[in-house]
Amino acid sequence: MASHKITTSWKENMLFESDNPSGHTVLMDTSEENGGTNKGLGPKAMMLSGLAGCSGLDLVSLLNKMRVSFDDYKMEVEGELTEEHPKTYHTVTLDYHFYGTDLDEKKITKAVNLSIEKYCGVMEMFRQFAKVNTNIHFHNK
C-alpha cells in the first residue's frame, strides 16, 4: 500500500517549512493580521493548489496521449469557507481555461471529465467535505 510522509518544521513566528516525498519544500505562513509575515502559502489555499495540481497533471498527461494541442492552460480555483470555526471549504469552484487555435473542445472536455470523475484523487477527497463545481472555458484565437 502506498503512503506519503512529510515533515513540517517550525522556522520562526508563524512560518513553517514542509517537505514533500520528492524532496522539495514549501513555506506556509499566515497574514500579518493573523500574526504571520505572509512569507508562504496559507494551508487552506495550498489545499486548493493541490486540487488544481492534481487535475492539471491528469490533463496534461491525458491531452498528450490524445494528441491534443493547446497554447496555454490554466486553472482558477475558488473555495468558499464556512463562517464558524473550524472554517472549512463548503463549496469549491474549479475553472479550466484552455487557450489556442482550433481547440479540440470535444477531446478536451473528455479529458477534463476523466480527471474529474476517475483520476484526480484530490478531487475525490474534496468531494467528501465540499460541493465541487467545475467549468471549462475555451479561448480560441
From TrEMBL:
Region (Disordered): 21-41
Domain of life where this protein originates: Bacteria
Pfam families listed in its UniProt record: OsmC
Entry protein name: Osmotically inducible protein OsmC
Organism: Tenacibaculum holothuriorum
